[in-house]
């Protein structure tokens, strides 16, 4: 009899922590289920009808043309300050945020300075390097603005040479020149610490 009593009392005593554990388990499972989309991102509903976008008289196309955001063409700049006022192109970042993941972007450009600048701003990071090789078809103003952009930004290189990139040889020369400039210019004090570390890490 006494044994039975002790058994019942123990059961009751144990049921409280067991209940708490069960509630915690259910809550955790519910939370994990609820936040599942964080770990497995859901694909966006992508129902753009490409046919509509190629039809220049379709309503979708006309609405897009009417409502799209246009780049505002900027005037030729007189100095670096004007570029920096227009664009957020930081030259440095806090040490705690800077990883050793330098990336090199090489592009051949020939026109649409504002678009080049916009894309550069979107992809910009102080630890990345950008080299813009100019095609021979670039006009004088584009050339001048690209050279200025290269002079203003430490991590933007613009070789003072034009390439006929309509031929494979010309395209190759442009890329090779960019690689050479990156190689020569990245030995400067500006990025030396990050490169040393990269070498040490393997
Ligand atoms: C283009 O869109 C217009 C308006 O919606 C439509 O009348 C026309 O048939 C479409 N043309 C083609 C080639 O789909
Ligand atoms: C585009 O603009 C028109 C008229 O201003 C508006 O009725 C329509 O909803 C807009 N479309 C989108 C996708 O914003
Ligand atoms: C670029 O090279 C092509 C092929 O050799 C040639 O036809 C063209 O005239 C060249 N363009 C310029 C601007 O020199
Ligand atoms: C920005 C910069 O330092 N550019 C230099 C890159 O390397 C070439 C070739 O050594 C120099 O002529 C540039 O001045």
From TrEMBL:
<protein>
    <submittedName>
        <fullName>Uncharacterized protein</fullName>
    </submittedName>
</protein>
<feature type="transmembrane region" description="Helical">
    <location>
        <begin position="12"/>
        <end position="34"/>
    </location>
</feature>
<dbReference type="GO" id="GO:0016020">
    <property type="term" value="C:membrane"/>
</dbReference>
<keyword id="KW-0812">Transmembrane</keyword>
<keyword id="KW-0325">Glycoprotein</keyword>
<dbReference type="GO" id="GO:0016757">
    <property type="term" value="F:glycosyltransferase activity"/>
</dbReference>
<dbReference type="Pfam" id="PF02485">
    <property type="entry name" value="Branch"/>
</dbReference>
<keyword id="KW-1133">Transmembrane helix</keyword>
<keyword id="KW-0808">Transferase</keyword>
<keyword id="KW-0472">Membrane</keyword>
<dbReference type="InterPro" id="IPR003406">
    <property type="entry name" value="Glyco_trans_14"/>
</dbReference>
<keyword id="KW-0328">Glycosyltransferase</keyword>
